[in-house]
Amino acid sequence: MPEAPGRDFSGNIPTERRFPLHLEPAIGTIRELYDAAKQARWDPERDIPWGEFAGSRYSRQTLAAAALSWSRRAWTEYGGLPETPALIIRFCLEHERESDPKYFLTVRNTEEAWHLECCYRFAELCGGFVAEPAGAAYRALFERGLHRQALDAACSLDAYVAAQIAIGDGIDLELSRLARDNAREPVARAILDRLVADKTRHAAFGWLYLRQRAASWGETERAAIAEDVADVVRNVELAGFRCVWLCDGAADIAEADRTTRDAGLGATTRDEEEPALRRFLLGATAQFAELGVDLPHSLLPS
Amino acid sequence: MSLADTHAEPAGRKPTLLDQPECRFPLALGVEIRKIRDLFRAATRNQWDPKTDIDWSALAGLDLDDAHRYAARMYWSRRAWSEYGAISESPALLIRFCQERREPDLRYFFTIRTQEESRHAEACYLMAEHLGGYIQQPALVDFQKSVATHGVRKMALDPETPLEAIIAALVCAAEEVAFDVFRHLVEITPNKAANQVLRSIMRDEVRHCGFGWAYLEHRIPQMTRAEIDVCERAVITMIRDVEMNGYHSAWLAPESPASRDEVEADRLTWEAGLGATVEELEKPVFVASVKSIRERLAPFGIAIPLFEHPKFDGLV
What we know:
The structure holds two protein chains of two kinds. Chain A is an all-alpha fold. Chain A has helices spanning 28-39, 44-47, 60-78, 80-93, 99-125, 136-142, 146-151, 157-182, 186-213, 219-237, 251-262, 270-290. In chain A, helix 8 (157-182) packs parallel to helix 10. Chain B is globular. In chain B, helix 4 (91-99) packs antiparallel against helix 5, helix 5 (104-130) runs antiparallel to helix 9 and helix 8 (163-188) runs parallel beside helix 10. The longest helix of chain B is centred in the middle third of the chain and has 28 residues, at 192-219.
């Protein structure tokens, strides 16, 4: 069994000193995201036209491919269920931190549950949810223990946000947009529309937070951020966590995604993902440079 | 906050759930406890926004003297601190559900439960703000301890504390008492904004309690007598040592300057019609609540005794 690319847990989590308890709006941009998220609330049951799915239009092979593509999407979405609560707690454990990120993350976690429910249900409609990846190397990318890393006192919270949210959620958003643009089937399209709308806020949160924090960083913090970002790019993203064509152990999913994409059922292929990934990493490297964090040039895929 | 500012717990600690490797596959996502999945869906349908769904104008131009206004600010600030505890502590239960690969319905439900706790904290904060200003911390150190050491996070991350015992004590006992008091507050609070806030929170809390009862109903038939005994002890401890020690109701707390201040602030807030209650009104609500918890737990084989407390004539 390949080892997951997660960090070792130091065994220590920060200790809470709850008071003075700041509940006032402090980071206006993130408070606006929180308020927008509350107003953008939706209901998978009511807002997705489940009844419009016409499975009989597709071959058995196409439906099986779509079931795998959407199961993979569900495995990815599921990550937020253990990770986001850990991140909420971590923000609460840090002394005298603003309430805005805490509030925002509680809404993000609900949205992750809605995404998960939709992806699972659509996989079921296409013939059945697949409960686990076939390849051990690919599976290991999901079991990184991010909840543990988020709570680990030895890990910088800002570096975590930089790596897992600015980079991870940022790439997720770009790929979800591509999948949405390819989706012609109404249920797949409606789900991906909702996912993209929510993920736009999730990705924005990361950069807004980092911009707010950048002035407080010293050299040590900047180095920790650069190191964590490089680690996630090299060992997670370029290992094929989201772009499955980069992972030797996920050829079955890459193949399924081609079929799913061609049928308009909401997936993307290497031809579309590769330039999007490159563009994203270039843009992110420039944004980090503006924040005083220099990422190694070797991060960009050749 | 940088790493240098964190205060790590000492080495030589007891292993927690965080020391265990993550193993999430095969990933079950289907419905296993229908009642809890339905609660998740009901919560999705019934979201509200404290900023836009409360008539805050009902707090404008209130004819309040300084003492009543300050008491009401303190009452709602205190309530915000208490709601915040559920943001800071309870998400650990979701980590536990995931790490132990418990029924997926629990995981879905808890995501939205935490969001609801955010709404509650925000609504209580806004009440305090509209009444003159949120207060960031208690004046007295012993009160600070009482609101800051809820302990759910630690229990949730301790693999040796049975999950069922945590749910029985925290939800079926403590949250049930809180819900009954909320219902009482809704009945007696005349100010429109305060009433709307209390009613909105109560509507969420009824699902939180429903979650606990549905989970016990599902789990108890699969549990041994010894495991049920652990739940029983946890509920008794919660009622006797936490609730009857003033966790939710200050008049039940041992006499101290902090509890006296809190009782006084509650009385002034109640007089102003802004949302608190007083000992003479809450006492029968508390007695009925404990009685109801006892009756509902009995069919599960969880026997809750009668309790003694100096504030009550006879046993509760």
